[in-house]
Amino acid sequence: GCSACYQIRCTDPKLCNKSGATIVVADFTQNNQTDFVVSRSTFSSLAIANKGPRLLKSGIIDIEYKRVPCEYKGQNMVVKVDQSSQYPYYLAVQFLYQGGQTEIVNVDVAQVGTSEWHYMTRNHGAVWDIEKPPGGALQFRFVVTSGYDGKWLWAKKSVLPSDWKSGGVYDTGIQISDVARDICNACDDNDSAWAESP
């Protein structure tokens, strides 16, 4: 679920509004629990007017959630070189501003100007890595899914320069807006689309 967007709302009608808040999942745990840890301001935004302090005081609340498309108007997806990267021996990357309602399920990297693609492995969460990455300027291609369908996308230009740096952020030139098709067309129009956290 990393980089996925969710709309969350709390289930106490005496304290909480019906619209909730939209969040981006930034990390995950190794267990099967469904917990959303959010900032203080996001937590407060779940409340009815003037009930924010009371909601904050409760600390942990029951919520409902549903997956929604991520929207980054006018923003291309970018590659962030993870801090664990060690130029030129080890490359780990994250993809930020991944729009739509998609999952990246495959990432390949190649030196610009070659057709020799190298498979990257999902290390953890949204981090993909490769030991002994190709030299020179690098380009990426991805398989993204929305629902059951997958498609290849690729950055046709150089994304990482030949002297990429740990912590660097580089534009892919790609915008993703695909949305998963739901079997239940009316799901978004009623409360049946919401799942409750345990």
From TrEMBL:
Matches recorded under InterPro entries: Expan_Lol_pI, Expansin/allergen_DPBB_dom, Expansin_CBD, Expansin_CBD_sf, RlpA-like_sf
Protein family membership: Belongs to the expansin family.
Gene Ontology CC entries for this record: extracellular region
Domain Expansin-like CBD: 89-172
Protein name: Expansin-like protein
Gene3D superfamilies, alphabetized: Expansin, cellulose-binding-like domain, RlpA-like domain
Start and end residues of each Expansin-like EG45 domain: 1-75
